[in-house]
Amino acid sequence: MGGRRSLPEFPQLVADLKALLERFVDALSCVDQCFIGGEMLDQLPVASHVGQTRVAGIDIQNPRIRWVAEALVALALAPRGFMTSDLAEQVHRLGGAAASSYTARRAAYDLKKFRAKHLVRRIDGTRRYEPLASGLKTLAAVITLRDQVIKPLLAAAEQTVPSRGPQHPTALDRRYAALRTEMHGLFHELGIAA
Q: How many domains does the chain have?
């Protein structure tokens, strides 16, 4: 779109802008309505194939893979897709100094893993890639689950110092504390870790 400002180019420029807007709205819809089925969540870490090539699975707990997933969501709006160098650059932004050794070659390998899971596709006749709509929903769901659900739950579970409780407990607070104490005793008698 850069540099085309003559009147004969105007219809093509409007069409390109319309396509860009539609792509943005589609990507926004995918991220807003993200969803991941139980089967996909279980299949992500399992090895897959791209053609005849066997590639490793996607371990979302690996920081590098997490940065790649976040970068793919960010690059979903690229009007003509993105190249491996674009992905490497985005991973550098997300990972900072920890991702300084991430290269376009590593990005190509990681893209192959995401392609094997049908989350990303190569644009025919080019060296560019784009996330599939279902892949964008899956990536957004995995990122959201990890950052907004699993991490806070684990942080709360690791809390070893019991809270002091409310400054001015109500009758409901006292009943809740008594219930917790009773459940802890019951779990102890049953041999269940509480």
A: 2
